Amino acid sequence: MEEKQNLNFLEEIIEQGLNEGTYSSILTRFPPEPNGYLHIGHAKSICLNFGLAKKYGGKTNLRFDDTNPVKEDTEYVDSIQQDIRWLGFEWAGVHYASDYFEQLYEWAMVLIKKGLAYVDDQSLEEIRANRGTVTTPGVDSPWRNRSVEENLDLFQRMRNGEFADGEKVLRAKIDMAHPNMQFRDPIMYRILHAEHHRTGNKWCIYPMYDYAHGQSDSIEHITHSICTLEFDIHRPLYDWFIEQLGIWPSHQYEFARLNINYTVMSKRKLLQLVKEHHVSGWDDPRMPTICGLRRRGYTPESIRNFCEDIGVAKRDNVIDYVRLENSLRDHLNKIAPRRMAVIDPVKVVIDNYPQDQEEWLDAINNPENPADGTRKVPFSRELYIERDDFMEVAPKKYFRMAIGQEVRLRYAYFVTAQSVEKDADGNITCIHCTYDPATRGGDAPDGRKVKGTLHWVSAKHAIDAEVRLFDRLFASETPDEVEEGKTFLDNLNPDSLRVVQNAKLEPSLAEARMGVDENGIPQPARFQFERMGYFGTDYDSTPEHLVFNRICTLKDSWKKESKN
Q1: Most exposed residue of 125, 330, 365, 428, measured as fewest CB within 10 angstroms of its CB?
Q2: Alpha-carbon distance 324 to 321, whole Å?
Q3: Who's near 327: CB < 8 A, 6+ residues apart?
Q4: What pTM, to 2 d.p., does this model score?
C-alpha cells in the first residue's frame, strides 16, 4: 500500500477545498511592494505561492503593492520580475494595486454612504495617542460623527488635491474599544502629493495596505492569499472590508516567515547598508538579497531546495545559515566542474625534473558525473602550491608538504621537499623538491602510500586572477540584538571580504565567462577549486582581468562565538 505523502497545513487546506468543491482551481499571488530588492525571505514566499499553484494545477499572479509613491520605483519592479524568473517561476499576469485605484476609491465611497467610513482631521500623532492600548479603549475622534454628505464632500476634495499632506485621512468607522487594535477605526486613505511611478500625478490620495490588499485579492479572485504570521491580526479586518462591501470572498492564510541567523532581512536595514556603503550595493555577494545571492554564485535550484527543506510552519523559528549553504553545496557538488587554483601561491621547483620538459596530464572534470569526462592540465618543473600546504618543521599528523616528507601532487607525481629559499624577512619564496618519475598518475608501483595530496598549478602555464573571499556579513548569530547605545552595524564581520590579487589558476580557467540563462539573466560560471571551495565568475570579470567570487567553502568552517 502506497504511503500517503505528508502535507503541510496549507496543502491540507487546499486539498480540502478542492475535494469539497469550494473552488475548482486555485489562484495565489505574490504581492511585493516595489520599494527595494527582494531577499531570501521573499524567496520562501515566492517558492510557496508559485509552488502550491503549480502542484495543484493553479496559477499565481504577480501583483505590485504600489500604494506608497514616495518609496517606490520602476527599478525595483524590474528587479523583482528578474528575481522571480531567475528562481524558475512565471506568473499568470502582472498586476498593480494602482490598477485598482479607481475601484478602491468607489468602494471607499460605498463605505462612507453606509456610515462605515469618515474623514478625520486629526494628525497622525493625535490618532496614535487616541487609539488606546490593549487594556484601555481608544477615544473617538471629534470628527467621527460627521454626516455622510460632509464625508463624501471632504473625501472628494481630498482626491481633488484641496488639502495638504497629513491634513486629513479617511478612516473606517468600526469600534474604538475593540480588543483587536486593528479594528479601532483604521486609516484607509492618506494624502500624499507625490508622483507615482505609474499613475504620475493623477492621484494625491493613496490607500493603506489593510484597505487595498484584500480588495485587490477579491478583484483578482485570489483563492489563497498567503501572508506571513505578522499579518494574522490583520486577517479579521481583511475579512471585514470584504464582507461590508459584499465582494468576492478571498481569504487570507498565514505561515511563519523565514528568519536566518547571522542575517538581517529588514528592508530598512538593508537599505542602510547600501546607502552607508557598508556593502557595494544591493547585489553585493554578502547581501541576503536574491540578486546578491545570484552574484555570489547561488543556483536557483539550491534556493528552491532550501525552501522545500525548511518546510512551512505556523510558528516563527530561526533557521541555521548552514542549511542554506548545505543546500548550495549539495547542488554545486553535482554540477560544478573541478579545477585547480592556488589562492596564496608559493613557488615549488622540482630539481630533478627535466628543465624544459612539460606534460599534459588527465584530470577528472567531475567525479560526481563521469559523463563530464576529463581535461588536460599542464605539468612542469616549476609549480605553485598553497602557502598553507607547506611547513618547514611539521608537527605529528601533519600530512601536507614538509622537509623530508613525501606527498602526492594531484594527477601527477610523488614529491619530497628538500630545502627552501627565503627573503630578507624570513619569508619562504621557493621550495625545492625532488620527484619520483615512477609515480606518474599519483600511484607508486611499489605500493607505498602517502597520506597527503595537494593541488597545484604549473607556473609556466598559470593564469592570474583576482579572487574575492566572501564570508558572512555579520559576526553575531543575532545581529539585531545589541547592547544599549549600539546598532546592528556594530555586529558587522570585519573579515567578510578579503581580496586576493595574485591567485594562480590552471589555464583552462582562462575561458571562464559570465553567461546568461534562458531569460537573459547573468549567470556566473561555477567551479569547484579543488580543496579550496566553490567559486564563480563575478560581473566585474573580463578576459583581461578574471575575477572569481568564493561562493562557499567545501564544508562549513564557521566558528561560532565562544559562549564565555
Answers
A1: 125
A2: 5
A3: 302, 303, 305, 306, 309
A4: 0.92
pLDDT at 558: 56
Cell (9 digits) for 365: 572534470
Determine the residue type at 12.
E
Compute the distance between CA of residue 430 and CA of residue 462 in angstroms, rounded to an integer.
16
Mean per-residue pLDDT, 306-315:
92
**Cα atoms in the 13 Å half-sphere on the side-chain side of 308:** 12
Q: How many Cα atoms sit within 13 Å of 56 on the Cβ side?
A: 27
Q: Where does the pLDDT of residue 316 fall: very low under 50, low under 70, confident under 90, or very high at 90 and above?
A: confident
3-class secondary-structure state, position 14: helix
On the CB side of 278, how many CA atoms lie within 13 Å of its CA?
A: 20
**Element holding 383 (H helix, E strand):** strand 382-386
| Cβ neighbours, 10 Å, residue 166 | 12
Confidence label for 442 from pLDDT (cuts 50, 70 and 90): confident
pLDDT at 194: 95
Contact 269, 262 (CB under 8 A): no
Length of the chain counted residue by residue: 564
Distance CA 84, CA 62 (A): 9
SS3 state of residue 154 = helix
Q: How confident is the model at residue 4 (pLDDT cuts 50, 70, 90)?
A: low
Percent helix, percent strand, percent coil in the chain, to nearest 5: 30, 25, 45
CB proximity list for 528: less than 8 A, separation 6 or greater: 332, 333, 336, 337, 338, 339, 534, 535, 554
Q: Do the beta carbons of residue 526 and residue 551 sit within 8 Å?
A: yes
For residue range 322-332, list pLDDT tens digits in order: 999 999 999 99
The 10s digit of each residue's pLDDT in 151-169 is 999 999 999 999 999 999 9
Active site residue 198: no
Number of neighbouring beta carbons within 10 Å of residue 108 = 24
- The Cβ of residue 391 has, within 10 Å, a number of other Cβ atoms equal to 15
3 state SS of 402: strand
- Quick one: 462 exposed, middle or buried, by C-beta within 10 A (0-12, 13-18, 19+)? buried
- Within 10 angstroms of residue 482's Cβ, the number of other Cβ atoms is 14
pLDDT of residue 179: 95
pLDDT tens for 23-41 read 999 999 999 999 999 999 9
Average pLDDT for 275-283: 96
Of the candidates 319, 371, 364, 301, which has an alpha carbon nearest to the alpha carbon of residue 530? 364
Helix intervals (H) in 114-234: 124-129, 148-159, 209-220
The CA radius of gyration of the chain, in Å to the nearest whole number, is: 31
Q: Is 33 labeled as catalytic in the residue annotation?
A: yes
Q: Where are the beta strands (DSSP E) in 267-344?
A: 318-319, 338-339, 341-342
The amino acid sitting at 173 is K
Q: DSSP states of 522-545 as a string?
A: EE--EEEETTTEEEEE-TT--SSS
Q: Which of 184, 267, 381, 468 is flagged as catalytic?
A: 267
8 A C-beta contact, residue 98 and residue 68: no
Three-state DSSP at 187 gives strand
Going 199 to 201 to 202 to 208, the CA torsion angle's sign is: positive
